[in-house]
Design a protein that fits this description.
Largest sheet of chain A: 5 strands, parallel
Helix content of chain A: 40-55%
CATH topology of chain A: Rossmann fold
Largest interface: A-B, 21 and 21 residues
CATH class of chain A: Alpha Beta
Distance between the termini of chain A: 55 Å
Order of helices and strands of chain A: EHEHEHEHEHHHH
Radius of gyration of chain A: 16 Å
Number of domains of chain A: 1
Oligomer: homohexamer
CATH superfamily of chain A: HUPs
CATH architecture of chain A: 3-Layer(aba) Sandwich
Number of helices of chain A: 8
Shape of chain A: globular
Strand content of chain A: 5-15%
Chain lengths: 176, 176, 176, 176, 176, 176
């Protein structure tokens, strides 16, 4: 039995993420999906809470024929202990998937097997682009799996992003 | 659709916890299981990591006919924000189940619907008793669901508890 | 102009605290009242939030003819920086009042002028005794200034203490 | 009785802030003034300590005929619990005033009554502009209430800002 | 070249610690001495600051013919990342020495070579016993290396311990 | 006996730092070298761990005829307590050396004797420039003392910096 680990911030979970997990699923028996920056929400870069992201992802994975674990992982802001933090929060895994050179480096220095994760169409699908489309409420639905569109609707996600975007750049709740 | 929330430390997940979730399952459509003190491990009170506990619980819940979410929740050590912390980490829930008067109080002060959780046979099944039996490696298997026994075996859980029990009372890694 | 500093947890603010401040008021022009462990609440030792304690104290001090500042001070859990933490949070003061030997020591090592604070009738008035009386809802009213009794009534303080007292010893929101 | 809540960083407290509080005072009986980022000081964006800001504000409010509470509030860096943090630190309030869309959003999602705060002349009075004038020691006195000018003089505030401005952009005490 | 790692709280550094390091020195070429709970001071269990302990240890090791590194290590309160924290703070080491079963366990689970450290006469030399003798200012000098006695004298260590011992059990700076 | 304190991040320790310490050595009997941001590593600005930096510095100082202490100092992110943090972590010192105006200001406000540190050739030797040369693996060796070049080789430092530089700007382990 092989278990793979794949981490992202999933702000929001989009079709690119979903393709990656489908390709990982072809290589392993079980997948752990780590939700990074789980403690962050209500900012331009991280609009959704960990619980909201968990709901998006779990609903999308339910359609797949694969044992999955979805694990929110709070930031620890200390690269040297990040791998131990992740491995303690997650069910044991045999291989980590990532395209982030730092993540690859950290797993590698810790002696954990790490593979380049399959690529998706980055131009169309990267998170920052999608969040900008959501702010304008235009052209974002087709980039997300249907259950994610549904969740965003239920939590009034578009309004939240628009409110946050009006705030000063710090993305913090303290006004001048 | 009604979603219930049930939190515990699950050190380890035992038959009493499982009975409670079965009874909750009769009242709601989906259950969120929160793993408290997710950042703690390798102490007498919290021997297992969040990832290990997640594995125990997920395997036991797989046998049930119920949509479930398993959410590790790190301690925040500040009762006044604990409810917000939990609700941000968890998929939205309509009712929280607990027997802990403080937890009931905190949810209540936050205006969240909270119900007394069904009781299990506390004498036999409380965590402290089970951990003591594990330390002596005697009479603990019958108190845990089979997948939990299996997980504990895979991670050498009994040896870990015995090692920890030999350590001084502080349960901290700094020796004198 | 001389400003004095007096710190306590004020769980709750009682007549003994009030006497101390009255005596300090005879020696200085202005008093800063620091509310310690401001981040703690809903435990047996710290039942009330910083905001609730601030309300109790401000109302009692309003009756006095003295310029006062009430400053909530979060725990910093590191004795070596505690004095800097306090002096940064508080308006500048010339003398600190305390009976706690550690506090006296820390101010002293930092070169801050510190005086033994006037004593009140400790047997009757210490916080632990008062909280126990509140738990039993008997004999606590006469030990507190009238505005404090009023505040506790408004926030259902007695019920909160009774709920907390029913909880296991850890005083933490994570149930077994 | 109605109590309003108004939060800012007040670096420094200026005539615009004062006008806002005067207008709020017309709508409520008591005002809580929250000092945000209370743990930050000695940076370009946050030159003054919480205690220094408390002194500035308290002196200005003393002239008003209104019950006020001044509450330093440390950053908690987690938007999802920010409202609980604020409500635990502050005396109970009925309505929050803010122009910050994120703050409005967070209070709104928590079910707390929030109103657009009255606007002041932003061009002249925003904090960043004032701090730049203070760095050049030119044209800042007329933008601040007299007690604030006095406090800045007592603590050598202009020299501090000039020293900080010479430091590298990080605003942190660790040199290269 | 072999480098060994030995960790303690060294409150204070005593002859037993020194014997252990002498014995480790016979097995390795270089020794890293980790000062645990470096962030704690001014409590009964941790009376001395990291800097004071560093001075004690460095002076004692200067007499030995061995390359040594003295590394203060702050508590991280999360056993699962403790080993990564230690290895990032310390020069690389090949073997860790400890008698603490938890420490041994944690290094072992991380795949780091760990050896039982040589034992000293625990009855006479354990830290708690020595601190009690220091509180009574009787019979402690003969248990400590001469440079440690000297350092304690310079920093008025006995008076500090006596002041701290008068404080209530919490060992915290917040008075009732 | 006079002890001086000199702090830097030493990412990496270069010939400019070494010259400064040599000049300080002419003025004092002992030098404490504080390693700032000790908790940070594996980022473009802070590529090396505290332990790696400690090794670089200790080896270079071994060649000098001077008693030295090397002290890793974790960030505390609160300027108002930074000086107490440093003085608790470090052996007692009589004078601090710095060119950083904020550091000079903080020591000055705390009443600690602080001197402008001797200047080195900033154009050639500043850390950012050296790290950029390391990324390109060109022209960096001549700017570092020989033992530092050796340490960087042993830990594959160039490869690490190149990996980190490929990562997105945040320098954090969470991928999109």
């Amino acid at each position: 039995m092989t278990r793979g680990f794949y981490i992202g911030r999933f702000q929001p979970y989009h079709k690119g993420h979903h393709q990656v997990i489908e390709q990982i699923a072809a290589e392993v028996d079980e997948v752990v999906v780590g939700i990074g920056s789980a403690d962050q929400s209500h900012t331009l870069q991280n609009p959704f809470t960990a619980g909201e992201r968990m709901m998006m992802i779990t609903k999308c994975l339910a359609e797949m024929d694969l044992v999955t674990y979805v694990v929110p992982i709070e930031d620890i802001n200390r690269n040297s202990v990040w791998v131990s933090h992740v491995t303690a929060m997650s069910p044991h895994f045999d291989v980590a998937y990532s395209n982030n050179p730092l993540v690859i480096r950290l797993f590698d220095e810790s002696g954990i097997n790490v593979r380049q994760s399959p690529m998706f169409d980055r131009d169309q699908l990267e998170g920052e682009n999608i969040r900008e489309r959501m702010r304008q409420d235009e052209g974002w639905r087709e980039l997300l799996p249907e259950p994610v569109v549904q969740t965003i609707k239920e939590i009034n996600g578009i309004t939240r992003i628009q409110h946050i975007a009006d705030t000063d750049a710090s993305g913090r709740a303290d006004p001048e």
